[in-house]
What does this fold into?
Amino acid sequence: MELDSSFDIPPSSIPYYRVAEFASNLRVIIEKDYAAMSRRAAGIIAKEIRSKPNAVLGLATGSTPLGVYQELIRMHETENLDFSGIRTFNLDEYYRLRPDHPESYHSFMSKNLFEKINVKPENVSIPDGMATDIGLFCENYEKRIKDAGGIDIQLLGIGRDGHIGFNEPGSSLGSRTRLKTLTEETIRDNARFFDNEGEVPHFAVTMGVGTILGAKKLLMLASGSNKARAVRDAIEGPVSAQVTASVLQLHPNVFVVLDEEAASMLSRSAYYVYVERMAEKFEAEAGT
Ligand code: GLP
It folds into this structure.
């Protein structure tokens, strides 16, 4: 992908206040590979934690955020990144999969992040797929997010069909936390984590699209060419319930961090790279 030669940073007469406006809307950041994408996204989360030690983080599962979690653990171990005041809410959990099942999102989060940082267990919330009254649980989950002051930054992956959380195509763009039926494509995609496809749950409890839109900042990640179409549809396609990630276009404060493969179907990559360079220059000068 030709990213470097298309634009030059214009002379100092450029109206930097315009860049500030760009920087606070939808920033598409394209990094060379998965490792660089992970470092960049972890840096955004670390900045949030350092500026607000009691920040509320919205967290995600899947293979995509693993590198971010590794980087946050490294920063905790070597750079004193402190999670002791942090509260977390996870996006989703499989329905009727016991929390101690190795493929539950409870297990995933413990193993890949919580056991290795100093977050307090009482500050961690993950949807309870075992709740007897799921409707009531979902209402309370929404209330707990609200009582915590709302989510400061919500981390998101993206499904190959453009879903966020488990908000499959057709989900209402105003939806709140609820039980969702997974599509065949998602069940097949997630089968790689289970012994066989028959074991993959067909339902999940997930924050709704409206819940996600309520976060103060969104940080969506995508890596690899198998996500390129979903990324293009989400960022450059129409806002539609058929691609729930497209709702990011409606939010005022979004970072989309991609590797080059995931960005490969975007038609405006060179422009995003140019805007990002300007935003970085502005931030360096403003000392933010
Ligand atoms: C699941 C999760 C999503 C995740 C998606 C993609 O559907 N509920 O939150 O974004 O998988 O996962 P991966 O990052 O493994 O491609």
